[in-house]
Specification:
The protein has 11 helices and 17 strands. It has helices spanning about 5-20, 80-90, 115-125, 150-155, 170-175, 185-195, 200-205, 235-240, 265-280, 305-315, 375-380; strands spanning about 1-5, 30-35, 40-45, 65-70, 95-100, 130-135, 160-165, 180-185, 210-215, 225-235, 255-260, 285-295, 320, 335, 340-345, 350-355, 360-365. The two termini are about 40 Å apart.
């Protein structure tokens, strides 16, 4: 921030006007504020940024008979549920392999110590017969393994890694390691649904090389436009604490930021979103995709979380796609994190396209059949049990 003598203000403002005219739309947003004849130039971004775009490889797609590991990087999962999920994988023509430490229990919540959970990830990565990894449950705890795994381990053994909620941490690590991953359903949901719902079968088909290309209905809080970039993000409570770490995929330029949440208050989501803004993340976005915000308490005077975030996003002149059915809800359609994507937001609807190899399969998100779990069941299955008593 600079204090400028009033006599210099006119010249400064003229220079800034020329600068703004030539600015790229994602440049840092600046404001000029005059208080008692003193001009302040305010730049909302106070940290340095990484101008390097992410470039991620797609792991090999699966074929029938391939082995898939079931592991628990966060909270524990009853073995009964893991076995039911294993049965679903067998029905899909795959061979499930259960992680050595999934039955461990630490601190009455975690599926073993951080070292044991990291060991299961490393085991699944290093076994050449295992072709993909599906997480059993989210909750909390994946941040504890960040410093126990090297990014190089993911790069040297690229495999499809599937999960959401607290698994957002590992999607961040994989993207920073240069490997795409799948934000999608987990073992607890497969066990409860039987794996025949569209949320599950789209993950199955994606693992096999059928890449969904989504058509999304119009939303009142959409911001129209078209943009391409690398898809990053996930559960906002999970990835904001990663800022500045080696798992921070938002540190890179040319990103399409995806955000979802469950059971948080509007003011807490606002706090997290402003943390992103003040760290320069929004200035690095080419576009934003807002997913599901389930049971998020309206403790501020906004009609929705999307309406609250709209007030910030409209300043950036980037497309915003609202209402994408991914996150902690009965429709949780898979997204390829770290993939180059294009979003095209129009007044009559929107599309989200993955620019990767595979058989492109159109999917109308409005036609996807939801499951029928209650919010309490969704919280329990995802592992975010800490919000139950709020």
């Amino acid at each position: 921030m600079k204090l400028i003598n009033l006599k210099l203000a006119a010249g400064l403002i003229a220079c800034l006007a020329l600068s703004f005219a030539s600015c790229h739309k994602n440049d840092d947003i600046e404001e000029i504020i005059i208080v008692n004849d003193t001009t302040f130039v305010i730049n909302e971004v106070i940290t340095d940024t990484d101008t390097t775009p992410l470039e991620c490889m797609a792991p090999a797609f699966l074929k029938r008979g391939d082995k898939v590991a079931l592991i628990s990087p966060s909270y524990s999962t009853p073995m009964e549920n893991i076995e039911k999920a294993a049965d679903v994988l067998r029905d899909w023509g795959l061979e499930p392999v259960i992680g050595p430490n999934v039955e461990k229990l630490d601190a009455n919540k975690y599926a073993g110590t951080a070292a044991e959970r990291a060991a299961d990830i490393r085991w699944a990565l290093r076994d050449p017969d295992i072709k993909a990894i599906i997480c059993n449950r989210g909750g909390y705890g994946s941040i504890q393994v960040v410093d126990q795994l090297a990014l190089q381990e993911f790069t040297e053994h690229p495999k499809w890694f599937v999960g959401f909620s607290d698994i957002t941490t590992l999607h961040g690590m994989l993207s920073c390691a240069g490997v795409m991953s799948i934000h999608g359903t987990m073992s607890t949901f497969l066990a409860s649904s039987g794996g025949t719902d569209q949320t599950s079968t789209l993950v199955r088909d994606l693992l096999m090389g059928n890449v969904p290309q989504y058509n999304v209905p119009a939303h009142s809080q959409n911001v129209t436009g078209k943009a391409s970039g690398t898809l990053v993000g996930g559960n906002i409570c999970t990835f904001v604490p990663l800022l500045g770490t080696k798992a921070d995929a938002t540190a890179h330029s040319d990103i399409i930021l995806f955000i979802e949440e469950i059971g948080e208050t509007m003011h807490n989501i606002d706090r997290l979103f402003n943390t992103l803004r003040l760290n320069g993340v929004l200035s690095r976005c080419k576009g934003v995709v807002l997913g599901e915000f389930v049971s998020c308490t309206a403790d501020l005077g906004y009609s929705s979380v999307e309406a609250m975030l709209h007030q910030y996003l409209e300043k950036y002149n980037i497309p915003v796609l609202c209402g994408f059915p991914a996150g902690h809800d009965n429709k949780n359609l898979p997204l390829v994190m770290g993939a180059p994507v294009t979003i095209d937001v129009r007044t009559d609807g929107a599309s989200l396209t993955f620019n990767i190899d595979g058989e492109q399969t159109p999917v109308n998100t409005n036609g996807a059949t939801p499951l029928a779990f209650s919010v309490k069941q969704l919280i329990e299955m995802s592992g975010k049990t800490h919000i139950e008593n709020r």
